[in-house]
Design goal:
The protein is α/β, with parallel strands linked by helices. Helix content is 38%, strand content 16%.
């Protein structure tokens, strides 16, 4: 795991965007796995600012996760946020985007469809992910099977509670669809973006814990090309401990 420790969120986002654009330059049609949420939002803004059309026109995208019962037409959904933050500003053609449809008639077939899209693209080149306060990545909660690919996710109550910030009014969330730990670990490169003092506790745990189902993010330590982007606030608890 390669650590990039930056002074603040804006600097972190700019550094990560430059790195990502550099990694994709030699790939004709890279497949980028994108997560919604607060942590990657700055990275997307910087990609839009730094890119040239030639650099991003060939990109294909697969969504990391989505709430059951929602799709791009639902304000607050994962895909809705990514359309606002990334797909619309980049003018991405619909056929270049594969995203879970939480309103599909069969959740199992929807998972199979996403897995097949990834396989048809030759795998994920770069996975952009954030980190939940309980250590989840995507909707892979603690103690879930790390060998799964795309699957129906049972959500921790803390995840459901935290998710309310993405909606204008209280919204019932019953579950999710997500790429599994195995899907993420199969990516050629992983960008883990974490910022803010509220994430400092879970970063400390990540840095001090061996891979374990109790803390899903620790599975990333088994991957040969993970880039962890932290700002000073997110690293504060870990740094305080290492310099004690």
């Amino acid at each position: 795991m390669t650590l990039f420790l930056e002074k603040d969120y804006q600097t972190l986002s700019a550094k990560a965007a430059g790195h990502l654009l550099q990694l994709t330059r030699d790939k004709k049609q890279p497949l980028i796995c994108v997560a919604s949420g607060d942590s990657p939002a700055g990275l997307y803004k910087e990609i839009i600012a730094q890119k040239t059309a030639a650099e991003t026109n060939s990109w294909n995208f697969v969504g990391l996760d989505e709430w059951q019962g929602m799709n791009a037409g639902d304000e607050g959904s994962c895909q809705w946020h990514l359309h606002q933050q990334l797909f619309k500003p980049l003018n991405v053609d619909a056929e270049k985007i594969c995203f879970f449809d939480g309103k599909a008639s069969s959740m199992e077939m929807e998972c199979q469809r996403v897995d097949q899209f990834i396989a048809n693209q030759g795998g994920i080149d770069i996975a952009i992910i954030g980190l939940g306060s309980n250590g989840h990545i995507g909707m892979n909660e603690p103690q879930r099977d790390p060998t799964l690919t795309a699957h129906i996710a049972e959500l921790d109550p803390i995840t459901i509670k935290t998710a309310q910030k993405y909606f204008k009014q209280e919204t019932k969330i019953t579950g999710g669809l997500t790429l599994g730990i195995a899907s993420i670990l199969a990516a050629k490169h992983i960008f883990l973006i974490v910022s803010g003092a509220h994430k400092s506790g879970i970063i400390k745990q990540l840095m001090e814990t061996e891979p374990t189902p109790a803390l899903p993010v620790t599975w990333l330590k088994n991957h040969p090309s993970v880039y962890l982007y932290l700002d000073e606030a997110a690293a504060s608890e870990w740094k305080k401990n290492t310099h004690a």
